[in-house]
Specification:
heterodimer, A: 176 residues, mainly alpha, Arc Repressor Mutant, subunit A, 7 helices, 73% helix, 0% strand, elongated, B: 458 residues
Chain lengths: 176, 458
């Protein structure tokens, strides 16, 4: 029989905070969380720790893990907003009065090229959304997704598109 | 802003953080869509964090930069606030314990009335204490476990977010209280109420923002319930989610406990090898010092799995080393489980006299404790011994006695039907070991599945 070697556990809160401080700073620095947002993340994690301290075996590992997870969620939440913005901007580009016909044609062409570089699943979904104007329930029905999962699938596809656009843009010839 | 005029780096950063006004957000997005290489270079650098650090190893190798000084002031402020909250909490915990004692001193029928009418029982720590009490009572007195969990649900129903340090904590506590109630009903074999309680816990999980640790606890109980319902694939899937959470949170002992629970799913689904593999992983992770009961449960299940797979010698060796742990626990149920396991292993080693003595003892003790189903299962093990010894009259007598136990406990009809088949075969001296095993296995499965039908072997 063997058991896990558990690290030295600091029992007092004061000692724990002193011990964990450098690791927390590392996490925040590396995740590039703006200091003003760090306060909420840290406070939520520490409150959860003190409320549940008796049932947590290794508080330091737990705290670092929880803070790291909250940092990821922080970015995920911001990314989600960003995807929505990109989505709205692309819809405007393809549908709105953005300029002369030739410019719009270039935009559409470059968007098509950008979509070509995405996985097949995203390509068809975004194509139907931007070129044919389908809304999420219609997309779910057309592509065979359940209404509850279409939101997630669309977000993933928008994430792929956003990544791609931020790396290359959709109409290089128009820049500067 | 136009495609030709670049946004400031600060604007791009606020754009990625979603901190610009909606028109500014749109305009910046349009600028980037136009493919501005200069701005793309900046945003690509800002884009990096969430992708780069999915891998915890990347974080471990990170070095603290000089920029981290900006965090010091924040850390100081938060640490100070949390220390103040902690000292308040210590006082609240003590108050919760006192309230629990006071509540338990009241007659059972007055407790809910007291909770509904008395403001000072609106206490988070009282709820936590009741949940703990419910869990502890599952091993000793399942009916008390239900009472305690019902009280916990009543308390949490009256709590507000500010009583718990926030809406997230309240939502987590509420989901947990309902899950423990479902669990308590499960240990009482009250399947309908269990399903209702778990459905409530599950809907609370999906409706509210709940911390990962709290979510894992609720999911873990839910997965155990799915196992009882014999929805094995679903149960295994939920346990995998729980394991992923504990791995992420670095809670190795809880990860071990999750493996132990998932092993039960494998066992019931007929995957004996998978079960033993998971149990060994669990034993590597569970600390016998801090959680002896869980460690013992893992050992017990491993011994049983070894016996079931025909490796009685290995089971015997492991049982020899595990006996002190049962004695250390000392509660009656643990000692009865030990005795039962001793009987099974002895039977596996063809030491039928020892097995008979153990099964008789266990059966009598379960009858004394009013645990008819366990008594009946032990009786079937005893019948198995008599079959091997060729004692047809004793097989027939035990079969009749077992049938009477089931009838007196009003167990569901299919279980009685199975025992009637066994009893009839025993009277004709035709009950073989295969039939005993088949009936025993059916009774174990039928216990949590009233819809199961027994088909008599040809």
């Amino acid at each position: 029989m063997s058991t896990v070697d558990h690290p030295q556990v600091e029992s007092s809160l004061e000692g724990l905070l002193k011990q964990v401080r450098p690791r927390l700073k590392t996490v925040f620095t590396r995740y590039r969380i703006p200091p003003q947002d760090t306060e909420d993340i840290l406070q939520q994690a520490l409150m959860a720790l003190v409320y549940r301290k008796e049932s947590i075996r290794d508080p330091e590992a737990w705290l670092v893990g929880t803070v790291r997870n909250k940092c990821l969620l922080y970015w995920r939440e911001h990314r989600r907003k960003l995807y929505e913005t990109v989505d709205a901007a692309v819809l405007e580009v393809v549908a709105g009065p953005v300029g002369p016909d030739q410019e719009r044609a270039h935009l559409r062409h470059d968007l098509a090229q950008a979509l070509e570089r995405l996985p097949e699943r995203c390509r068809s979904l975004l194509w139907m959304r931007y070129r044919q104007g389908y809304d999420p329930p219609e997309l779910a029905e057309r592509l065979g997704y359940s209404p509850s999962s279409i939101g997630k699938v669309t977000t993933r596809c928008l994430a792929a598109l956003t990544r791609h656009l931020f790396a290359s843009g959709i109409c290089r010839r128009k820049t500067e | 802003m136009t495609a030709g005029r670049h946004p400031e780096p600060g604007v791009l950063e606020r754009f990625l953080l979603g901190r610009l006004s909606p028109p500014e957000m749109r305009e910046t997005a349009r600028h980037l869509l136009a493919g501005c290489p200069r701005c793309q270079e900046i945003t690509a650098g800002l884009w990096e964090p969430a992708d780069l650090f999915e891998d915890p190893l990347a974080l471990a190798s990170a070095e603290v930069s000089t920029e981290d000084a900006a965090y010091d002031a924040v850390l100081d402020r938060v640490f100070e606030r949390v220390a103040a909250v902690e000292s308040q909490l210590a006082a609240q915990r003590a108050a919760g314990r006192r309230l629990h004692e006071e509540l338990m001193q009241c007659p059972a029928e007055r407790r809910h009335l007291l909770l509904a009418n008395c403001q000072r029982f609106r206490n988070r720590m009282l709820c936590e204490r009741l949940i703990e009490a419910s869990y502890e009572a599952c091993f000793e007195d399942p009916r008390r476990a239900v009472e305690a969990a019902e009280l916990a649900v009543a308390v949490v129903g009256r709590l507000e977010a500010e009583d718990c340090g926030g809406a997230e904590a309240l939502a987590g506590l509420r989901a947990r209280a309902w899950a423990y109630l479902g669990n308590a009903f499960r240990t009482n074999f009250d399947l309908q109420n269990s399903e209702t309680a778990f459905a409530t816990a599950e809907s609370l999980l999906s409706e509210s923002q709940i911390s990962l640790a709290e979510k894992a606890k609720v999911l873990s109980l839910l997965a155990s319930w799915r196992k009882v319902q014999r929805r094995f694939a679903e149960a295994a899937q939920i346990f995998d989610r729980v394991a992923a959470i504990y791995k992420r949170l670095g809670q190795w002992d809880l990860l071990g406990r999750t493996f132990l629970q998932k092993a039960l799913v494998c066992g019931e689904a007929g995957d004996g090898e998978g079960e033993m593999k998971l149990l060994r992983r669990a034993l590597d992770l569970i600390d016998p010092q801090s959680d002896p009961r869980t460690f013992l449960a893992a050992r017990h299940n491993l011994i049983n799995a070894l016996y079931e797979s025909g490796r009685a010698r290995e089971a015997f060796a492991l049982l020899y080393h595990t006996r002190p742990l049962y004695l250390q626990m000392g509660d009656r149920m643990s000692l009865l489980r030990l005795r039962w396991l001793e009987g099974l292993v002895a039977f596996g080693l063809q030491r039928t006299d020892q097995a008979e003595a153990a099964f008789r003892e266990v059966r009598e003790a379960f009858l004394e404790l009013d645990l008819g189903y366990e008594a009946a299962l032990a009786s079937l093990d005893l019948a198995g011994v008599y079959v091997v010894q060729g004692r047809g009259a004793d097989v027939s007598r035990v079969a009749e006695e077992t049938l009477q136990i089931f009838q007196s406990y009003n167990t569901h009809r299919e279980a009685i039907a199975a025992l009637l088949v066994f009893s009839a075969a025993a009277r004709l001296d035709q009950a073989g070991l295969d039939l005993v095993r088949e009936v025993s296995s059916f009774l174990k499965r039928a216990r949590n599945n009233p819809d199961l039908r027994f088909s008599a072997p040809s």
